[in-house]
Write a structure and sequence with these properties.
495 residues; alpha+beta; seven-stranded mixed sheet; five-stranded mixed sheet; 20 strands; 36% helix
């Protein structure tokens, strides 16, 4: 038997999964810590975690996986997925010089905004496909100015996954996909973004050498193997940020496909086959795991903060904490359009797709003599769907032709009302799968190790557990409701 080991290095926990390469089935998995991992916030808007803690979580999760299986001696390859946009500064020995500045830390925003202004929006967008924003490069600029002693000692700058790979193999490497999420990849020149490193004053020797996302990236060292309870010499053959990896996990690799999640916040990650950008910078664009200069595969990332958090708020405040399945049943008792109620779901902070406006959540059209809790529940789910559609419209303006949405069978995608409304308003077929990031990383490792000849072979055993097709007879009415919702949104963000 041949097994693949995948890790998902999140900010809440680290998950490890052991996958049977021949069947694609997960034979053992675990995560650590069992309670949400702490995030240190020394000041408002800051967020840090120590890389040593990630490694401790990797060891704990691995130990629990090994206790549940006797197959670890047959592991052929390791893959890593990781939280994106973090900054790890290490010395010449590979030791972190300070805690990592992670994805949700906002201290670098002014640095990215200043770079965008000084370098010019057209130059940044045409080369980086994004604003420098609050990404890794801007976080390093903050360190350079505010912690010069740390910056002077820094030998290498890494993303979280690069650091874990270093701990496993002793080799410091990164990927094009990783550099693109750090805003350090120039798509026009197909090279490191020299104009941005020059502007920030970074010596490019700080950046690790580049290796393919699917390629041998070192082998498990004797030291790491002893710490993990694994055999030395296992190759590390895949690494990717969590959103590109989530798309890989759902077999989303080709133009027109979308990977989506709808938990507390929602993510729409679509694949574009042409090098393009949104002139208003309302979405993020990164190199997907299978991107190349000759065959562009760009991941367009849209994050909607107000998603499942609205549904859970409605459940607590309106539906007296009934089970989500009952909530969905109540929503299904009301016709499309909720008899005139419209809800804008943007009550969880500023939304990038709304040009960083914090418009708040608002309810429109309520009639005290007509509407009850069922209408509010339905309108909330529709409002979330319409926020997705609004973002997907931006992607289509960038040249994407969206035909399929792949999602995990979880959270909002468990709701028939949510799924059918999303299918009707987008015209896309929704496919649900039982998988996660650590299992996807294991499959990615199989591709990188050559155990699978291609991605199609790696995912031939990934079973679709549910399909929702758009209903042509319902689509016109759904679009009419969406247009009325969008008119309210447009009015609210232009006043």
């Amino acid at each position: 038997m041949t097994y693949l080991l995948g890790y998902d290095i999140g900010s809440s926990s680290v998950k490890a999964s052991l996958v049977d390469a021949s069947t694609g089935q997960c034979v053992a998995s675990s995560f650590y810590p069992k309670q949400e991992a702490p995030i240190k916030a020394i000041r408002p808007g800051w967020a840090e975690q120590h890389p040593h803690d990630w490694w401790a979580y990797v060891k704990q999760a691995t130990a629990e996986v090994l206790r549940n299986t006797s197959s670890h001696r047959d592991i052929a390859a390791i893959g890593i997925s990781y939280q994106m946009h973090g900054l790890v500064c290490t010395d010449k020995q590979g030791e972190p010089l300070r805690p990592a500045i992670i994805w949700c830390d906002g201290r670098a925003i002014p640095y990215g905004e200043q770079a965008f202004h000084d370098l010019g929006s057209e130059r940044c967008l045409s080369h980086l496909l994004n604003s420098p924003g609050n990404f890794t490069a801007s976080k390093l600029a903050w360190v350079k100015e505010n912690e010069p002693e740390v910056f002077e000692q820094t030998a290498k700058v890494m993303l979280p996954g690069d650091y874990i790979a270093l701990r496993m193999t002793g080799e410091c490497l990164t990927t094009v996909s990783g550099l693109s999420e750090a805003m350090l990849w120039d798509f026009k020149e197909n090279d490191i973004a020299h104009f941005l490193t020059g502007y920030y004053g970074f010596d490019e020797s700080l950046l690790p050498p580049i290796v393919g996302s699917f390629a041998e990236q070192g082998r498990l060292s004797a030291t790491a193997a002893a710490e993990l309870g694994l055999q030395a010499g296992i190759p590390l053959t895949y690494r990717a940020g969590d959103q590109p990896n989530n798309a890989l996990s759902l077999n989303v690799l080709h133009p027109g496909q979308i990977a989506s999640t709808a938990g507390t916040s929602g993510v729409v990650y679509g694949i574009n086959g042409s090098t393009n950008y949104d002139p208003l910078s309302r979405v993020n664009t990164f190199a997907h795991v299978n991107h190349s200069a000759k065959q562009p595969r760009l991941g367009i990332l849209l994050c909607i903060n107000g998603t499942g958090i609205l549904n859970s708020w409605i459940r607590r405040m309106v539906a007296k904490d009934i089970a989500y399945k009952e909530l969905d049943q109540l929503a299904g008792q009301v016709p499309m359009g909720a008899d005139g109620i419209r809800i804008l779901p943007f009550g969880n902070g500023a939304e990038r797709m709304l040009l960083n406006r914090d418009s708040g959540c608002s309810l429109h059209g309520i009639n005290f003599n007509l509407h009850d809790e069922r209408h509010l529940i339905r309108a909330a789910q529709e409002g979330i769907v319409f926020a997705f559609k609004y973002g997907i419209d931006i992607m289509q303006q960038m040249g994407m032709d969206i035909t399929n949405i792949h999602a995990g069978r979880a959270n909002m995608f468990l709701s028939p009302v949510f799924r059918q409304t999303l299918a009707n308003v987008t015209g896309a077929t929704i496919h649900l799968f039982d998988t996660d990031g650590s299992i996807g990383a294991a499959r990615g490792a199989g591709i990188g190790a050559g155990i699978y000849s291609c991605a199609d072979e790696a995912f031939e055993n990934l079973q679709c557990v549910g399909t929702t097709e758009p209903k042509p007879d319902e689509m016109p009415a759904c679009m009419e409701v969406y247009e009325s919702w969008k008119a309210i949104l447009t009015s609210s963000i232009t006043h």
